[in-house]
Specification:
Chain lengths: 471, 485
């Protein structure tokens, strides 16, 4: 029980009848609160849908100079499903966070608009249009997310299945090795002509496993073994889990040639173990292991080394012209520069110059047409989404849920950082998708399910923990 | 957990801060650099398909964009293409534009910062963005005169207003038609480009300001003379021994005066006589006494070695190396050895003498105008620097008048007008045709025009042509067109 509740309730009962009406009115507010959060969500959601439809309209006008009303059906369908989600929330999770659904919807909608814009430039029509596919994927992803939302009324049960989650996660990670690589990265599974990136779903399974495992194991993991300066290192016998995760991450790096995924899972594990055990030594140990492994890989694996050279020396003619060189990054940077502060306007840039602009390079495409202002807005939306997720970690009262909320939010933050940092040369470019924006079904399914889990977790935060309703 | 969560939040914030910073650097801080990268396809495409502003000479557009019905929307067309090619340059599909088209690409395409307000205005009023127009300093009539006067010879003509540095004529031959390169048919444009690059006569070279440069021959004696007079140790009457041949210091190579024999007779020859009759031997001796360091310093005051002269297209710096070999110093004093110049540089030397010793910054652009005709940028006459004193300028003007009236530059005479000038006939290696020069200005008492003419490949006469017979008459026609107006 928080202090505010007791201080509000205690004295009112003890004093005269004049105060009793205060007390009852405060109860009424409490009862209304659930609807209040949903009432905050609804206008935000309508605004998000409006932005998505508006973006599609501008794309049509900008890129082909005429208005194709049929194309507005794409964001409208997305918006319709988002409203269904809103209704499901009103019924099954009335206390859920009001920002997550509108943010996911507007990011998804802007992504569909920009992908359609690239369809126009590349003359992709009908079912070949990636924008149309993206809407279908979004629909599948949202329906799955709503099923998750409705099915798991209590996320805590997931902690029971932590070892199943571990096996599922590792299986999903290893699955692509049985299939042919696409675009040089072995992260795809092809079944019946449909390509799927199981690694995207693996991050949810692994977050569940990490949260479940760490909650039970954190006492032993927190035991101090050896002290080295200010750092208190764990006992050698407790090093098993971190070594296993490290081996898996290195396996992803070496066998699947996927630096981004490797970094993503390892980063996720480190943050979660740190939050669970409060031992900085785990982070130091993990970073040493990962950087050491990555350095050895970069020395011995041409692929990893190439990524580093391409990153540092992107503007040299040699790298620019090389096969798998810096052409894509540099053209993306040219696009961003062309956009400048205010952008060329939707549909009026040349994002199609960058190869595969609709997936890894959706951010430079948007930066070119929406400008720095637009990118700041998009990054701000991600940041807000992540902070709403981290809030679960602060306010939740069940440790498994708190850890899972932190892990899922951090994975969105880290993935955004790896992708956007890669195309803006903060870090080497790796093959990850931009959450909600990039073309691709696996990524959409995974991220919408993450939103569903975060919504469910935020609904579990007892209203008493935040008396003002919003914090 | 709270403390750890706060730290994780800080890390998340730091990651996003890095992204906010990186995107800001790319889209604002570095955007100009990235946009001007020659590999930036967007800039190239945008500037190629934009409605580029006109390039104007004497009120008439010599380059303009006309609407066409294809992907690029506007076709660049050049009126009198070959005549103005050294000035306009060209705009080519998927390639870097050259000439004024290249140097002022962003203004012409409407993407320069100076055109920002005009562009904003166009966006607000719903007009199609159009680039700014560029008015050149060229005199249409004079350009045609220079073009005709050079005939079918390989070479270049540059005419300057010595008081302002404005370029009045700039001709380079053989030339090319930029219309061929501006074609929207990619194959056709590239084929035309490849053919021009492969052409042994190098038509794409702007010989007036760039290309392979030429040995200046005797026109360089102006700089040696200026060095001597500026030093204070010499006057036009300073005398030198006057033999019929001279063995260069430390070698067995002998040089002679161009006409053979001594310099105008007598036991000694003055600097004035040597310049008037263009004798090599007295200048070799003078150069040896002055030394390469002083001559180079003087040459640099006229613009030699300056890699930052843009008119706005870049001018290849002319060279007077710091010779250490005594024989080379002697040869360099009459424009041989490794002296290499552009015609524009030699015109700047004459213009500096004509303008009382002050060299004006050469300039091809008069004005840049927004599509609504409001001026964006107007060019004013700017001093490049004082090369010689007013006294030296007056003395040298008289010496150059004598060269035309009663010396080696006789074919530049214009009846009723005093012309100051200097010829040059540069040797290029055993058996190679000469490079023929004239540079000077008129009228000598109130200079309106300074010119430099170079005729390469001996003007087709091998080693039988001379500056006075081939280059001076061309210069005369160009100067006449201005002074007889």
């Amino acid at each position: 029980m928080s202090a505010s509740t007791s201080s509000a309730a205690g004295p009112s009962l003890a004093t005269g009848p004049g105060r009793i009406s205060d007390f009852t009115s405060s109860i009424r507010i409490r009862l209304r609160e659930p609807a209040r959060l949903r009432n905050i969500e609804l206008p935000l959601l309508l605004f998000a849908i409006g932005l998505s439809i508006g973006a599609m309209a501008l794309v049509q006008l900008g890129a082909q100079g005429q208005f194709d009303e049929g194309m507005l059906a794409l964001p409208a369908a997305l918006g319709g499903l988002a409203l269904v989600g809103h209704i499901i929330l009103r019924v099954t999770a009335p206390n859920a966070d009001p920002f997550l659904l509108p943010i996911a919807t507007v990011l998804n909608g802007i992504g569909i608009a920009e992908i359609s814009r690239l369809d126009i430039a590349e003359h992709r029509l009908g079912w070949d249009a990636l924008g149309v596919k993206q809407v279908v994927f979004s629909a599948i992803a949202m329906v799955l997310a709503f099923i998750v939302l409705a099915a798991f009324r209590n996320v805590r049960v997931l902690s029971r299945y932590r070892y199943i989650a571990m096996f599922v996660g590792i299986a999903l990670l290893l699955l692509p090795m049985a299939f042919k690589p696409i675009n040089g990265a072995q992260v795809w599974v092809t079944i019946a002509g449909i390509n799927f990136q199981p690694g995207e779903l693996a991050k949810i399974a692994l977050a569940i496993f990490f949260a479940g495992y760490l909650v039970t194991a954190r006492d032993s993991l927190s035991i101090i073994g050896r002290k080295l300066g200010p750092l208190q290192f764990p006992r050698a016998r407790d090093l098993g889990p971190i070594l296993i995760v490290w081996v898996v991450a290195m396996g992803v790096l070496v066998v699947q040639r996927d630096l981004g995924t490797s970094l993503l899972y390892f980063g996720l594990f480190l943050v979660m173990i740190y939050v669970a055990t409060a031992r900085l030594s785990w982070v130091v140990l993990g970073m040493t292991l990962f950087i050491g492994g990555a350095l050895i890989a970069s020395q011995t694996l041409g692929y990893v080394n190439g990524r580093f050279v391409t990153w540092l020396d992107a503007f040299s003619n040699e790298q620019y012209r090389a096969d798998r060189g810096s052409f894509q990054v540099v053209q993306g940077l040219f696009g961003l520069a062309d956009g400048g502060l205010i952008g060329t306007g939707l549909g009026q840039g040349r994002p199609d110059i960058v190869p595969i602009a609709e997936s890894d390079f959706i951010i430079p495409s948007l930066g070119e047409e929406l400008g720095l202002i637009g990118l700041f807005a998009i990054l701000g939306l991600y940041l807000l989404m992540v902070s709403r997720g981290l809030r679960i970690g602060h306010l939740g009262d069940d440790d498994f849920g708190r850890l899972l909320g932190v892990g899922l939010s951090f994975v969105i933050a880290l993935q955004t950082f790896i992708v956007v940092g890669g195309v803006t040369r903060v870090i080497p470019l790796t093959g990850l998708t931009t959450p909600f924006l990039a073309a691709g079904g696996s990524s959409l399914v995974a991220n919408w399910i993450i939103v569903a889990l975060l919504l469910r977790l935020s609904d579990g935060i007892r209203p008493a923990r935040f008396p003002g309703g919003l914090q | 957990m709270s403390r750890e969560l706060r730290r994780v939040s800080i890390i998340v914030l730091a990651m996003f801060a890095a992204l906010f910073l990186s995107t800001s650097i790319i889209q604002v801080g570095q955007s100009d650099n990235l946009r001007s990268d020659p590999r930036n396809t967007r800039t190239i495409l945008a500037s190629f398909s934009a409605e580029r502003g006109d390039i104007i000479v004497g009120g008439e557009p010599i380059a303009s964009s006309t609407p066409v019905d294809d992907d690029y929307q506007f076709l660049r067309q050049y009126a009198n293409g070959p005549l103005y090619a050294p000035a306009t340059g060209y705009s080519i599909i998927n390639g870097e534009p050259r000439g004024v088209e290249g140097a002022l690409n962003r203004e012409l395409a409407g993407t320069a910062d100076s055109t920002f307000l005009a562009r904003l205005n166009q966006i607000i009023t719903g007009q199609r963005p159009k680039g700014a127009s560029v008015t050149l300093t060229l005199d249409a009539n004079l350009q045609q005169v220079a073009w005709d006067a050079l005939g079918d010879k390989t070479g270049a003509v540059v005419a300057l207003n010595p008081k302002t540095g404005q370029i009045l004529a700039m001709v380079s031959k053989p030339s090319y038609d930029p219309n061929q390169l501006a074609s929207h048919d990619r194959q056709q444009a590239l084929a035309a480009y490849d053919a021009l690059v492969a052409d042994p006569t190098k038509p794409l070279q702007n010989r007036a300001i760039a290309g392979d440069l030429y040995a200046p021959g005797s026109t360089f004696k102006l700089i040696t003379t200026a060095t001597a007079l500026e030093s204070g140790d010499y006057t036009p009457d300073s005398e030198f021994p006057n033999p019929g041949s001279l063995t260069l210091t430390g070698t067995s190579t002998t040089i002679t005066n161009s006409e053979g024999g001594s310099c105008g007779g007598g036991a000694t020859a003055s600097i004035a006589t040597a310049l008037r009759l263009s004798c090599n031997i007295p200048f070799a001796q003078l150069g040896g006494e002055l030394g390469a360091k002083k001559i180079q310093a003087q040459a640099e005051k006229f613009g030699f070695g300056d890699d930052e002269i843009d008119i706005p297209q870049h001018v290849t710096p002319s060279q007077y190396p710091l010779y250490t070999d005594a024989a080379k110093v002697e040869q360099s004093a009459f424009g041989q050895a490794d002296d290499r110049v552009t015609p524009l540089q030699m015109a700047m030397v004459s213009a500096g003498i004509a303008n009382g010793g002050i060299v004006m910054k050469p300039n091809l652009v008069q004005e840049i105008t927004a599509p609504d005709l409001s001026p964006l940028q107007e060019f004013t006459a700017t001093e490049y620097g004082r090369a010689i004193s007013e006294q030296t300028a007056t003395t040298m003007t008289q010496m150059m008048i004598n060269g035309v009236n009663s010396g080696a530059a006789s074919n530049a005479r214009i009846s009723g007008v005093q012309v100051a000038g200097k010829t040059g006939t540069a040797q290029n290696g055993v058996g190679d045709p000469y490079t023929l020069w004239f540079t000077g200005f008129a009228p000598a008492d109130d200079p309106q025009i300074a010119v430099a003419v170079v005729v390469a490949n001996g003007g087709g006469l091998g080693q039988n042509g001379f500056g006075n017979t081939l280059a001076a008459p061309i210069a005369k026609k160009v100067m006449e067109a201005v002074v007889k107006r």
